[in-house]
What does this fold into?
Amino acid sequence: MVKYVLVTGGVLSGLGKGVISSSTGVILRSLGFRVTAIKIDPYINIDAGTMSPFEHGEVFVLDDGGEADLDLGNYERFMDLTLNRDNNITTGKIYHHVIEKERKGGFLGKTVQVVPHITDAIQEWVERVASIGVDGNPAPPDICIIELGGTIGDIEHGPFIEAMRQFQWRVGKENFCNIHVSLVPVVGAVGEQKTKPTQASVRELRALGLSPDMIVCRSSVPVAPEVCTKVASFCHVAPNSVISVHDVSNLYRVPLLLMSQGLPGIILSKFGLNSPRKVARMTSWERVAQEVDDLNGADPAKAVHIAVVGKYTHLSDAYLSVIRALQHSAQFVHRKLAIDWIESLYLEDAAKTEHHQEYEDAWAKVKAAHGLLVPGGFGDRGVEGKILAAQYARTNKVPYLGVCLGMQVAVIEYARNVVGLQDANSTEFNEQATHPVVIFMPEGSKTHMGATMRLGSRRTDFVEDKSSVVRRLYGGADGVDERHRHRYEVNPDYISRIEEKGLSFVGFGDSKLRAEIVELPYAPAGSEGGHPYYVGVQYHPEFKTRHTRPSPPFLGLMLAASGQLEAWLDTHSGQLGNKDSSDEETSFSL
Ligand code: GLN
It folds into this structure.
């Protein structure tokens, strides 16, 4: 029988429910349990694919092509799991499912209602997902963590809370555990810790028929034992079941904090699972937490500067996985990372007069950077600035990584400035370009926006007889499975002309049909010819980065930017896989 942990949130959003949910998963996994996770987003969109990353944060892409909220990325990275689109439930998906069934006559003439039809559909969905093995393991998970997005009391929550109220009886109360994450504010000159908001939110939850088994009190400082006791007595939970999660120096400390306060014991005793399958090894978390603290405290003058050239770059949630991939790589090579955000529009000539100061600042940052990164993007705004950034990196031998649009931009730049095709462009930006070096993929739809892209995990095969630094970073593999999200691709008609002039196409997908990886021949920094790291990938490697296994193309950028690529290639090629299932870690020091 699968056991369920429901994580709800009270008082206000932004308390870190996602981190607490995934940290719970980390701990349960470390005890040998098979864990899966479901995120419930009560919005009406079917998925996050049509939402602006600048409003909602990045669109995270899953192996099966599901476009999800960035929380799914946090789950995958933290718990080291591979999830599917069904692990993300939205109001839109549930209603869509029920309405489709109604249209097919699936309700036998009944009036279709929120209770029981929507609430049943939610419960069936959860049970179905919880019965599917994760990460290639055919056995169903032991424990399913369900995070209910939003705050108790939200109007949109109604059907989900009611479904979960019923669900605890459906699966049996001994198989259902509710963790409620709440806030203990610290107020006044003496810093009094207040329990009233928590009391109010638990009262609201109980009125809806759910009673927490554990309360996680978020606070800026450790919550005093007597305050925890007070929360326990007012909120009808066992005295040992109130946990304090204060602000910590970095995310990796959260599982350690939960562990130190006995979180697994509380959950396992509720489930009657009295003996864990193995002894938890949290050493990797302790090590990475310490490493991150050490790097944060390191001398800023020694930081490796990576300039990220994008759109609205001050909204960093829009590039969350890119940031994580850079951070994982920096931790791996023991270097402090500084990300310099550059609005690509300000690199363009037009900005010179209209936004003179911004233009000067943007170019100063590009010139000071140890490495440049152009991430994925859509639409023509600021594209010329990105092309200029790619040109700067190529001609000045600054390490460059282009992801998706960043790869297309590198190809356009090369076609224009090296091959001599002056108005080379993508048809995304100029349908009339004389030299359409990037074109719309024929099988896509131009009228429907949701899920019409080439999405999800696709294989890239390395070209047998070409040397490739990217391939070496992937451990010499024949091919790699990475995630995609694009509508445009390099025009195959131009590949040989571009290659003749030196930009190498070293990886292809769909039996050589689609260009996936380009790079300039590698030459260590300071040597003649070649480039210390000039790489473009059509896929999004950032979606599969892990703190123990940083994404290889990002690791390459970081190694090159910190002057360590040559040494790494000499001694460590072949160690980094694209995916492994062990919880053993790799790290290296020079
Ligand atoms: N706009 C480009 C395309 O659709 C790039 C997409 C991306 O960077 N994710 O192909």
User: Anything to note?
Assistant: The radius of gyration is 25 Å. The chain has two domains: 3-287, 298-573. Confidence is low (pLDDT under 50) at residues 575-590.
